[in-house]
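Re: the request from the purification team.
They wanted to know what the chain is likely to look like in 3D before they choose a buffer screen. I agreed to run a prediction and write the result into the notebook, where they can find it.
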Amino acid sequence: MNDKQNWYAEFGSATNKREDTVFDIHPDLATSFADAIRNRVNVQGPRHAQGFDDLTATIAQTSRVIQHLEAFRELAIAAADRTSPHADRKAIAIAAAMPPSRLYRLLEKHGRPRDRKAPASINNHVNRHHKEK
């Protein structure tokens, strides 16, 4: 196997066998992504990319993946909070690996009130007042 070639990944379901194939993945990103999905905690540095151009291309692709996953995580967090007026925000924060203060800022960004006990009209007034400052 030539380690300099980019890799590909196939995604599918055992029940419906629909697959999606992604090509042109930098090898170091592919192994790091697989390790993350497998919950391996011993993060390794790049083994395949050695030169400046290869390393910066790997960094750029990794950054795009991180940005996309961060946006997806935000939307998933907001969706989890919308599942119930009593959604367990502590469990959401633990799953998101973030402190409660960051979770509340993220939820407020997505229109979710910090105080779920207050009527919506009061929350809107508080949010408008907070934005004016």
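For the purification team: The mean pLDDT is 88.
Please add any questions underneath this entry.
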